[in-house]
Design a protein that fits this description.
- By secondary structure, this protein is an alpha+beta fold.
- It contains seven helices and six strands, in the order βββααβββααααα.
- Strand 2 and strand 3 form a beta hairpin.
């Protein structure tokens, strides 16, 4: 891989240019330290023989990684990279999938078939619907009630309104 330079960032990607002016990109989701870093921290890097290094953030990006086929995460990878609060082992049990296999899908070591990917996405949607339909527990009204109140009140409560 040839040496890259002119590193830049936006909300979703890290960009670098090769010697011919070709702009390459990859998702910043692969690099949580850079995702959460300030502009000053992001700009404090060195260029080595094989890539970029952020000493303060303890992060490295190889030049080669900008050429990887999976420089941009799949839908499943993106979801789990953005939602680290979801326990992979428990989610895997819920859908009857080996946790190591799901981690391999997320980390890009293996690629799910179209049918398996759809099965995982459907399970994510089902989980989301369950979160959305959460209601009437501990004196709080359902999401639908809160939604209608939100549309009609000047100062809505985000997570629910105590029942009267």
């Amino acid at each position: 891989m040839r040496k890259l330079g002119n590193l830049s960032f936006d909300t979703n990607f890290i960009y670098a240019e090769d010697g011919n002016g070709r702009k390459l990109k990859q998702s910043i989701l692969w690099y949580p330290a850079l995702l959460n870093a300030s502009d000053e921290e992001r700009n404090n890097y060195t260029v080595g023989f094989t890539g970029f290094h952020w000493r303060e953030l303890d992060e490295d990006i190889s030049f080669e990684s900008f050429e990887y086929e999976d420089a941009i995460p799949s839908r499943i990878q993106e979801f789990f990279l953005k939602h680290k609060e979801i326990n992979i082992a428990e989610f895997s049990k819920r859908i009857g999938l080996n946790a190591t296999l799901l981690r391999n899908y997320i980390n890009g070591f293996k690629k799910p078939s179209f049918a398996r990917e759809q099965e995982i996405i459907d399970a994510i949607h089902k989980l989301g619907m369950e979160y959305c339909s959460f209601g009437a527990v501990g004196g709080y009204e359902s999401v639908n009630t809160v939604k209608s109140q939100y549309l009609s009140e000047a100062e809505p409560t985000v997570y629910g309104t105590p029942t009267k």
